[in-house]
Structures are given as structure tokens and as C-alpha cells.
Amino acid sequence: MAALGSQLQLLQTATKLHAERSRHELEEQRAVWQKTNTALIESFRKAAGDGSLGQAWSEYVRDSGERFVLMLDALRRRGDMFYAHEAAGSPPVLIYDYEVVMDARGLPRPCNYMLLRILPKAGVTVHEWKRPYVIIDPRAGHGPGIGGFKTDSQVGVALSDGHPVYFVAFRPMPEPDQTLACVTHAEAAFLREIMRRHPGAPQPIVVGNCQGGWATAILAATNPDLAGPIVLNGSPMSYWSGRLGQDPMRYNGGMLGGVLPALIMSDLGHGVFDGAHLVYNFEKLNPARTWFRKYFELYSEIDQDDGHFLDFERWWGGFYLMNEAEIRWIVENLFVGNKLAKGEARLETGRPIDLKAIRAPIIVFASHGDNITPPQQALNWIVDTYADESEIEIRGQRIIYMVHDQVGHLGIFVSSAVAKREHTQMASTLKTIEALAPGLYEMKIDDIAGEGHAKRFTVSFHQRKMTDILDLGTGREEEPAFAAVARMSEQLAELYDATARPIVQAMVTPQMAEMARAMHPVRLKRTVMATRNPAMAMLPAMADNVRASRTPAAEDNPFVALERAWADMVEQSIKAATDVRAAWYETAFLSIYASPWAHYYGHTHQTERTRKSKDELRALPVVIEALAAINKGGLPEAVVRMMLLLAGSRGNVRRDRLERSSELLTSRSPFAEMESAARTRMIHMQNLMVHFEHEASLQALATLLPDAAARKKAIEMVDYVAGSWEEMETRTREMSLAMRRVLDLPAPLKSIDKAAAE
């Protein structure tokens, strides 16, 4: 009965949320329509009154016909571009020149990946001693290049700051017998080559976009000695997570049969899975945009520039393929099984993937406006991996997350505004992140003043708990339903393997598979419009004639306004239908998989990662070692411990303090003479002391600094990082005074003056 009550509650909540959102959108749209209709009526009344309505209609008919011809010509050029791009081998759509550094086809375990070095544009200087950037784009149907699609991009931000930039790209067709393990081995080889080329630079920063994010996480977990800080942009890591009343894409596994469709499509592709299927799924997620508004904007704004449309379509229309083993691993371990977040995924036999093994700092960028990777999918792996936020500290890890209010999934990678703000500030933060005390933080960016590249920002890091991540969603009560999907998927795959699969594989030839790919709807709508189609033969001449005598209608033409209003109504109608579909999809899923029977059926797959208790964490060898050395050390250990004590009292860190901390720990004696690994270990060990024995670590400062000169030097260093007394919070001032009492040092004059004034 409890399970049935839980199911009914989920259905009620989901239905309510869908209804509330639909009502809210309808109310907003009603206000817009009322304003639009009033303006339309007034414009037609005015045109009828002054006798210009007939002339306006004549101008509109000509204008509309000319725009239609020019739009068709743009689609023709898109088709030609599609053929040309494929004939050239579908190269990355980067706007930068590049050179191929390594080709993974020559590695012991070959794959279709390659490492590119981005060549800076004229006027941009790159310093070989700076930390290299490595960008891994998603292999989710499209080709590589979205991370360097514009000047204001991840690539552009890194190059403008003087960093060497490398790009992990891939070819359209996988190598025979290629697996994701081959890909990970290749990416590890790429990092080793980059480190060989830059021996004096810190370990590379690795940026993973979307599906490239989990690839980056797997790379860092299986090769913890190679990667520097990693950045996961819009990267799905916890696939069962999402928000009720939203994010319907996660239900595909249950509603479509788990891994079975991928296996069938791979067999129909003669062992190769067509990435066009994934692109088609993305388009179905927002048909109002991908199937209507995008083309209406091309039609209505054709005089402005169709270059932006064609540039984007060059990437969106580049379809890449995977071997059956690759897509099967992805679906079974990520999309359906959610094994990466649960700690159950294995890259290959005998090689489990443990996200706790990642030693590099992690930055996660998510957005509430992302309906492909909602914040819960990007962040809940943290909750699933660690016992609590204190375990992140204990293991010496730094995880920073940032949640944008509204940018969409693709906007995370291609938006110039995001590149100028979020990616630029993240890049600046990455220079100093290793000076941040271990823990879980939220990064916040606030605009101060200025415009464009001159805009100034304030960046701060706020200590967070696991509950802060969970509060971003609507709960996780529906997630056990996905366990039934995982079991169902496994059993359907076994049944298919044992029955129909040999027959399907025997029936499909390479020629049949190639023909099926050519006839896929997302390819067909491009090729059918290309110049190769005889029906398009007269279009180029027609378009040239239109351009030569183009006569746009006046901006205030009432029929142009009516056209725009019609387009808005069509778009809203499609959105309303999509909302109804999403509501039906979710309620159908919950009706099937959240039922008591499904809970019983899936209980074998409802496992969670075993988490260590606080006592077990205290018993870790590294903790025992740290606590045994609480009275050992000198000036470096004391300064780091004092900085950690102050940071713990504060609860948040401004970037200017972090920058001063980084400058102190890397540029000033005695820290400048330390190896980076030794410095990182010292911060970790001192943090363990402060975490487990806060008061004892404070009192031990007197032992670490036995003489007055060392104490004076240490407090000066700490005061430099902490900043002015006026900027300190009350608890930070109290800790500063407590450290001075332990060290038998006088209180700052400003604190004495303040006390006297009070």
C-alpha cells in the first residue's frame, strides 16, 4: 500500500506541475497576444483609413515571394554544404586553424580520435609555459568543433589568455572493434603527449562538453595522475535524476525499450549505430524550435544574413557514427543503468570506474534552462558518490559547481555571452583553484559595471552541503522506477541476442545499411534540397534575379506584422502540443514503472553506492597520518593551517582572496621552492587536522612557531591573504584574534579601536 500511495503521489505531483506550467505559459502568452492583436487591429484600421491597404498587400505578396525564394536557396546551399562537408571527411567545424598532433589510429588500440593543436589567430600570443587547455567535445551524433565554434568560445577564452589549446576531435566512422576503452586509452595518450610538449607547465586543464563531460570524468578517474583541473559543461552524469513535471528525455529508456532500439539500429546499420538517430531525438525534444521557428527566422530575416544559419547547420548536419559496442556501453552503463553515478560501471574487465579516484579539482557548469542535461543530472552524482560534503574535504577534493538561471544546453557551449562571462571567469578561477581549501563550493558571478569585454565581475565561492544540491530539484522519489527499466532493458537485450538478432544481422548487407543511413529524415531533408536534385536546377538563377531586384516590404506593413503574429501562434501551438506530449509521457512512465509491481521487479537494481561512515572516514590511513603530525612542521604548515582556520570560519571565499592565497603559495618563499604535488599534499594534510581536531590544531600553532620572528612573519602572510580588517566577517575576526592569542601576538590596532568605539 505504501508503494501504491507513493505512485499516486508522484502522479498527482507531476500532473499538477505540468498543469501549473501550462497555465502560467498560457497566461503569459495571452497578455502578449492581447497586445499584439491590439496593435494589428490598429495598423489595419490605419491602412484601411488612408487607402494604403491594397498597396500594402501588393508589397507584402512580392516581399513574401522573394523571401521564400531566398530561403529555398539557403536550404539548397545547406544541402550542397552537407555533401561538400561529407566529401571532405566531415572535418571539425572549428573557426581556427589547427595541426594534427596525434592520430589514435596508430596506437596499439586504434580508434577514430585525434589530437589537434589550435593555432592562434594573428595578434594572439601563446606561452608554452602556461597550463595547456584540452577540450573534449561530445560524440553524441554530431561532430567535433562546438567548443571552438566562435571567437567568443571556450577556445577563444583560453587562447586570449595565452594558454596553449588542444582539441580532441574524431572522425565520422569508428575503427573496427573500437570500444570506449580504446577511446579512453587514446585520450590518456593525448594527455601524456601534451605533458611531454610542455614539461614546465602544470598538468593540463581538461574541459568536457555534454557527453564529453562523462568521458572526461572517466579519463580522470582511470588516470588520476594525468589531468589537472577538469571542467564538466552541461555534462549528464546521473541519468535517473531530473525534475518532476519536466525533463521528459530521461524517460526514453523506459518508454522505448531500454537498450533494445540501439541494438536493433546497430544491426540494421551492419554493426554501426548512426548518430543521426540521436540528433533526431534532440530535435523532437523541442520541435517548435527545430522544426518551425528556426526556418521561419531564416525566411523572415533572410535579408539580414543567412551565414549564421549555414554555419550552425554545418555542425548540426554533420552526423557521426559509433560501433555497436560503444552505444551499448553508453546506454547500459549511463542512459539506462546509471552505473557511473552508482560506482558500478567498468571501462573494461577488471577496470572499475570510481569517481572518488579523481584527484583533480572539478568545476561543474549546469543550467536551469537546459532540458537535455538539467542540473540534477549534472550534479546528483556528487551526492551519490560521497557520504557527505565532509568526505570531499577529507579526500582532499575540490568540487565547484555553478548553475546558470536560463541558458539552454547548446548555449553553454556556443553562446558568446556565456563565453564572455561564465567561461572567462571559470578560466580565471582555474589559475587559483588549487589554493582553495578542499570541499564543496558553489561559484557565483555578479556583474559590477561596464559592458562587453570591459564589464567587471565579482566572483565568490560559497561552501555548500549535499542538501543544497538536492534543493535544486523536486526530490528523488521517482528514481527507483528507473531500476525496473534497467532490469527490463537487460532482459530484452538477452532475449533479442538469443532469438532474432542472428537473423537480423544475417539479412543486412553493408549496402543496405548505407542506403538506410542516406534515407534517414535528418539527412534526407538536406540532400533533397541540394543542387543535385533536378527540381532545384532553376533555383540559383531565380535567387540571383531576386537579389538583383529585391524590394522588401516596409517594416510597418500590417501584413508583415500579421505574418509574425501567425508564426508566434503556430510556435505556441506546437509548444502546447509538446507540453501535452511531455505530460502524457511522464504520467505513462510513472503509471508503469512507479507501480508496486515494478518496484518489486526492479528491486534488484535499486542498489546505491556503499558510503563510508564518519568513523570509517576518520580511520582512513591518510587521516591517521595527518592527526599524528598535528604538532609537527614549521612556518609553511603553520601558515596553511591558519589560512584554513580563517576560511572555515568564513564559509565563503572571494576570488581576490583566492588569488592572493595562490600568489602566496606559489610565488613567495618558502612555498615557491616546493613542488606542486608537495604543496597540494600539505594543504590536504593540514585541512584534515583542522577538520577532525579543530581546537587542537589551533593550539598547536604555538608549537609549530616557537619563536617570535616566525610568528610575526606567519601572521603577516595570513593577514595579506585575509585582507583588511574592515572587510572581515565577525567570525573571521574572532578566529584571527584567537590565533593571535595562541601565538602571543598583539591584536590589530583597528580591532582595538573598534572595541573602544563600541
What does this structure look like?
This protein has 758 residues and is α/β, with parallel strands linked by helices. Among the domains are: 98-247 and 326-492, Alpha/Beta hydrolase fold, catalytic domain (Rossmann fold, 3-Layer(aba) Sandwich), CATH 3.40.50.1820; 620-757, no CATH class. The protein contains 34 helices and 15 strands. The strands form 3 sheets. The protein has an 11-stranded mixed β-sheet, with helices on both faces. Strand 9 (346-348) and strand 10 form a beta hairpin. Helix 3 (154-160) packs across helix 16 (416-430), helix 26 packs across helix 29 and helix 27 (635-650) crosses helix 29 (676-692). The protein is globular, with a radius of gyration of 29 Å. The termini are far apart. Residues 752-758 have low confidence and may be disordered.
- CATH fold group of the domain at 98-247 and 326-492: Rossmann fold
CATH architecture of the domain at 98-247 and 326-492: 3-Layer(aba) Sandwich
Terminal CA distance: 63 Å
Kindly state the percentage of residues in helix: 55-70%
Pick out the low-confidence regions.
752-758
Tally of helical segments: 34
What's the main sheet like?
A: 11 strands, mixed
Number of E-type strands: 15
What integer is the average pLDDT?
Answer: 89
Strand content: 5-15%
Structure summarized in a few sentences:
By secondary structure, the chain is an alpha/beta fold. The protein is built from 34 helices and 15 strands.
